[in-house]
Design goal:
With 171 residues, the protein is an alpha+beta fold. The protein has 5 helices and 4 strands. Helices cover 33% and strands 23% of the residues. It folds into 2 domains: 96 residues, no CATH class; 70 residues, no CATH class. The two termini are 31 Å apart.
Length: 171
């Protein structure tokens, strides 16, 4: 797996905003105790899916994925009584474009949450946090962002000017 590190790093270096997963495909074997017959089968050991974005340490991410694959292989060998690694067939690296949700995205609530008292304002701008707070602080009869805008004008609601729009989570 260390031999593939440079190739994987070069692939990712040019592809930011990417989800990555490694799968080590192997052939494992064991000897049946009762018959003495050798049993051979294919096995695959997966890493967790990682996200490669600006600022991600490629070496650290690769090490984490590699360690997870080796851990899964070790658990398989210990827990499956007698299986040994016979050979490695391939190390597959799967990538997919990573598109996080934006601040102005509206996602309808699942039906199990829709009946709860959850504020999920449907808006067409990047000020969903503003409208949710305004809605929470005012009458339950205000159903739309349009009516909230009117309320904000009437009552002179201010105090949102220092917010960065859209609001992103930061570490």
């Amino acid at each position: 797996m260390d031999a593939a590190k440079e190739t994987v790093s070069n692939l990712l270096e040019n592809n930011r905003q990417t989800k990555v997963k490694m799968i080590l495909k192997c052939i494992v074997e064991r000897t049946e105790i009762k018959t003495g017959e050798g049993i051979v089968k294919d096995a695959a050991f997966h890493s967790e899916q990682e996200v490669y974005i600006e600022g991600t340490d490629i070496d650290e991410m690769y090490m984490k994925m590699k360690d997870r694959v080796i851990e899964n292989l070790t658990v398989f060998q210990k827990g499956q009584s007698g299986w040994r690694l016979r050979s490695i067939v391939s190390l597959d690296v799967f990538t997919a474009e990573y598109k996080p949700l934006k601040g102005s995205s509206y996602i309808p609530l699942p039906s199990c949450l829709a009946s709860k008292k959850i504020i999920n304002m449907q808006n067409e701008d990047d000020q969903c946090f503003k409208w949710s707070v305004t809605r929470a602080l005012n009458s339950k009869e205000i159903p739309t962002v349009k009516e909230l805008r009117q309320l904000a004008k009437e009552r002179g609601l201010k105090g949102y000017s220092n917010l960065i729009k859209p609001n992103y989570l930061r570490n």
